[in-house]
Inverse folding.
């Protein structure tokens, strides 16, 4: 008889009803269908977090219909660790299900020293993609993004690199992140001419950071007109749109661990968050759920495709994913929310949208 302590883990078998658990939404005018809520591995999947916790979160997410998982070359710590840990999971649990998962990675922010470990050069993007695939233990990513605009590289060079990634079969689709509406239009035109239309834009978006809605030619509108989907990241403003910071900074939180700027937690912002928590309670949702539902609300043609969340535990994940069960808002609720859904100076990525391209 085998000793249970040394018995191998039973193989992972995803929940058979997983595709009924989460609404799917068309990604722009493409044939890709993304879950309304996707999981990102930015902060909670580095070597400073237990592998088994990471494994539990990802398995549970897939069981609950999260068929899209978002990575980038430098997610960790250290840089590359999230992709490496995900690669371990690919070998242990996920390989039989690779074809049903939409996996993304990115390059654009800093990854290694020197001029080609950062930015938008062809050299950086294509060498980084190669390394990401090795770490993730997969032959291709579904989406490869340019992670941020690079004013020092011609846009044509960056787009040609994304096109090449797709032509080589190492990525199935291409996307951009944190590009301004104007730069998005230029990028989309170049990619259309090359024959690889941009699939998707990944901007920050939350109740406290509404830049994607701003202006006649807003990013949400631009993406729709260009046939692109939009996946909004940090819909919880990195955890601020939950109850966790209302009475101080818990040690085990992202801000407590020094991974988020405590300056974001200004008293004025906290008073808006308290008011939003009250509205959420009246709706019968947690604040986290309402924050996610709100970014996914019906905005006509300019609606978001997907909310891209993070989670540091299975309990958080389950709470957040339940948002998909209530995406409707009354006009009164939206008006009450608007009073407190105000610009709060938390858009770290704003400066990345300024570009001379
Ligand atoms: P987020 O969903 O705004 O914040 C996630 C954090 O909120 C968690 O780590 C946790 O904080 C807290 N949290 C989550 N669910 C909760 C719940 N139900 N109740 C209470 N607290 C909860 O998203 P994010 O992690 O900042 O970003 C999500 C993903 O977007 C990233 O993983 C990445 O894939 C992508 N992203 C992309 C870019 C880009 O430049 N393209 C930039 C940033 C992020 P604690 O850790 O404190 O528990």
């Amino acid at each position: 008889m085998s000793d249970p302590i040394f018995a191998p883990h039973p193989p992972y078998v995803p929940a058979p009803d997983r595709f009924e658990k989460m609404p799917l939404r068309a990604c722009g005018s493409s044939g890709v269908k993304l879950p309304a809520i996707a999981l990102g591995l930015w902060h909670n999947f580095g070597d400073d977090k237990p592998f088994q916790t990471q494994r539990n979160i990802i398995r549970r997410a897939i069981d609950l219909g999260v068929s899209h998982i978002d990575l980038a070359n430098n997610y960790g710590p250290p840089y590359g660790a999230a992709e490496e840990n995900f690669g371990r999971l690919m070998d242990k649990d996920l390989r039989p299900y690779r074809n049903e998962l939409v996996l993304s990675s990115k390059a654009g922010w800093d990854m290694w020293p020197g001029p080609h470990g950062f930015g938008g050069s062809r050299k950086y993007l294509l060498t980084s993609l190669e390394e990401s695939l090795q770490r993730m233990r997969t032959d291709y990513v579904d989406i490869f993004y340019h992670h941020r605009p690079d004013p020092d590289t011609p846009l044509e060079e960056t787009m040609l690199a994304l096109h090449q990634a797709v032509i080589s079969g190492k990525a199935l689709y291409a996307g951009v992140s944190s590009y301004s509406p104007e730069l998005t239009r230029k990028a989309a035109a170049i990619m259309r001419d090359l024959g690889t239309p941009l699939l998707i834009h990944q901007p920050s978006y939350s109740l406290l950071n509404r830049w994607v809605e701003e202006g006649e030619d807003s990013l949400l509108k631009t993406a729709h007109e260009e046939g692109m989907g939009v996946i909004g990241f940090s819909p919880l403003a990195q955890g601020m749109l939950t109850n966790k910071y209302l009475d101080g900074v818990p040690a085990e939180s992202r801000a407590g661990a020094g991974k988020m700027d405590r300056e974001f937690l200004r008293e004025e912002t906290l008073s808006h968050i308290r008011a939003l928590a009250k509205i959420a309670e009246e709706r019968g949702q947690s604040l986290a759920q309402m924050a996610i539902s709100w970014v996914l609300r019906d905005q006509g043609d300019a609606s978001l495709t997907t909310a891209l969340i993070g989670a540091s535990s299975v309990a958080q994940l389950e709470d957040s994913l339940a948002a998909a069960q209530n995406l409707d808002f009354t006009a009164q609720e939206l008006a009450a929310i608007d009073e407190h859904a105000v610009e709060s100076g938390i858009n770290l990525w704003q400066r990345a949208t300024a570009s001379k391209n």
Observations:
- The longest strand covers residues 171-177.
